[in-house]
Amino acid sequence: MASEDNATGFTYLKTYQALFQVIEILLMLVAWSLLASQKFYVLPGFQFALGVFVVVWLITLFFFVFYITGAHRKVQNHLHSKSSDTASDPLAPPPETTRCITGSTWFVVEYAIYSVCFMFLFVADCIVTSLAGKNTHYIASYSFGWLALLIYLLHFCLLVRNTEGVWPHQCLLRCCKIAGQAKATSGESQPIMATEAGSSTQP
Q1: Burial of 29 by CB count in 10 Å (0-12 exposed, 13-18 middle, 19+ buried)?
Q2: In sequence order, what DSSP letters do the residues of 134-148 get, joined into one string?
Q3: Is 1 part of any domain?
Q4: Does 71 lie in the same domain as 45?
Q5: How far, rounded to the nearest angstrom, does the alpha carbon of residue 62 sit from its chain's CA centroid?
Q6: Contacts of 160 (CB under 8 A, 6+ apart)
Q7: Distance of alpha carbon 114 from alpha carbon 8, whole angstroms
Q8: 74 and 134, same domain (yes or no)
Q9: How many Å apart are CA 106 and CA 195, to the nearest integer?
């Protein structure tokens, strides 16, 4: 597979991210089409689920077109030029930090949006599953919806890997380790501070 950072056009179609997006687009298209084909979709629960299916499908389609046309590279180049203009600002972040942020800007944006889409899609699938009854179109719709949710989860893990450099469980373990070290460091500093306070009160 090709590199996903700067791939555009037909080269982007050879990446794992493009493969996930194509599968997601097809599955969500079938899911919301089956749901919209029935007259009972006017019920409140089905209206919400149909709206979520269509919005998630449009967002995925937008990012697919956004990456395949190379628009994300133009945005990143624009951010790089702005960061170079503010390099003389004493309050600006260090250059290496700026490069790190701007280099993964759209992976971070898509990472955040996919997490929100995943939560809403999960709720919509639960609604359709609970209200489907014996309607074969609704059963097929939520089946494709749950399958799409699984693909979105795998894609979400891939985005975390591209953004953080580690898989989600490794990122969680690293965060827990950092939090534990910070707690241990603060616990060690408190007795020292108490000792210094007690010595300063002596005549």
Answers
A1: middle
A2: T-HHHHHHHHHHHHH
A3: no
A4: yes
A5: 14
A6: 111, 166, 167, 168, 171
A7: 21
A8: yes
A9: 50
DSSP 8-state class, residue 93: P
Burial (Cβ within 10 Å: 0-12, 13-18, ≥19) of residue 138: buried
Q: What is the pLDDT of residues 57-72, one digit of tens each?
A: 999 998 888 888 877 6
* Exposed / middle / buried, residue 48 (Cβ in 10 Å: 0-12, 13-18, 19+): middle
Question: Both tokens of residue 85?
Answer: 């203009």
**Contacts (Cβ under 8 Å, ≥6 apart) of 144:** 27, 28, 30, 31, 34
**Residue 14 in tokens:** 């050879």
Structure tokens at 173: 């373990």
pLDDT at 16: 83
Helix or strand (DSSP H, E) at 194: helix 168-200
Supply the pLDDT for residue 41.
61
Distance CA 186, CA 70 (A): 47
The residues near 61 (Cβ < 8 Å, ≥ 6 apart) are: 25
Residue with the bigger pLDDT between 69 and 83: it is 69
Both 60 and 134 in a single domain?
A: yes
In DSSP notation, 64-129 reads HHHHHTTHHHHHHHHHHHHHHHTTT-TTSPPHHHHHHHHHTHHHHHHHHHHHHHHHHHHHHHHHHH
Structural domains of the chain, count: 2
Residues 6+ apart with CB under 8 A from 132: 138, 139, 141, 142
Contact at 8 Å (CB) between 59 and 117? yes
